[in-house]
Amino acid sequence: MSEILVYTLASGSSGNSLLVSCGGVNILFDVGVSGKQIRERLASAGFDIKDISAAVISHEHIDHIRGAGVLSRRNGLKIMATEKTLKTIQRGGRVGEIPSYDTFSRDVPFVAGEMEITAMPTPHNAVEPSAFIIRFSNGKKISIATDLGHMPLGLRNAMKGSDMLILESNYDENMLRNGPYPPTIKDQIMSPTGHLSNCLAAMTLRDLITRDTRNVLLAHLSENNNTPEVALKAVRKYVNSGTTEHPHIEVAKRHEPGEIYRL
Ligand SMILES: [Zn+2]
Ligand SMILES: [Zn+2]
Question: Residue 214: how many CB atoms within 10 A of its CB?
Fold first, then answer.
C-alpha cells in the first residue's frame, strides 16, 4: 500500500484547496484560489499541476472554484463536480469555460487508484453541496467537510472512525454577533445552511474522534469572525474533556500551504 499524503494549499472564506495523494493519484479537493497560487503551492511541495489527476469540487461558491477555469483551460486539469454544480459553475460565468470535466453523483462512490471517494450531501446553501469521505485500499479513511451549517446525521456516521478529520470551524459566536457584518449576513452564516461554529465543530468532533483518529485539521475559518487561537481553544476544551483519545489538532493555514501530513 502506498503512502497517503495530505497537504492544504489554502483554507478559509478567502479560498480553499487541499491535495490528497496516494500511489501516484493526486486529487485536489476544491481549487478556490487562483491558478497561479495553486501551481506555486503545489510546486513548493514537489508537485507539478500536470501530476494532478483531477480537481473534485464541493460546491459552486467562488472560494471553492476560483482556479477551476484557468487550470482546466491552461493545464488540462479535469474538473469533477455533480452535474448540477457543474452547470451552475458554467452558467455563472465567473471562472470562464471549463473544457475538461467529469461528473459524479452524491452517495455513489467513485474510484481513483487506491482511493474510493464518496460525495455526501451537506445542508449548505448551494445547489448540490458535498462533503467527501475517502476510503483507501488499506482501510484508512479521511473525511473532508466544510461549508456545513449543521452536521447531518448520515454524514456524521460516515465520518466516524476517520484516520484524519478535516472539519469546518468557521466562526466564534461572540465575534460574529458583535462583529461588523449586517444582521442578514450574520443570520445567514449562523443558519442551519450556513457555516459551522467553533462550538458546533467541537461538539461534532467529540462524537467523531475514535482511537483511529490521529489528526484533526480545523478548516475554513472566517477571516473576521474567528482566529486560529480562538478555534483551537474552543475545540481542545471540548475534545480533551469528552474523550480519552487525544489526536493532533491543528488549524489549516489561510493564505499559505500547511505542513504535509503522511498517513
Ligand atoms: Zn460555500
Ligand atoms: Zn466556502
Answer: 16
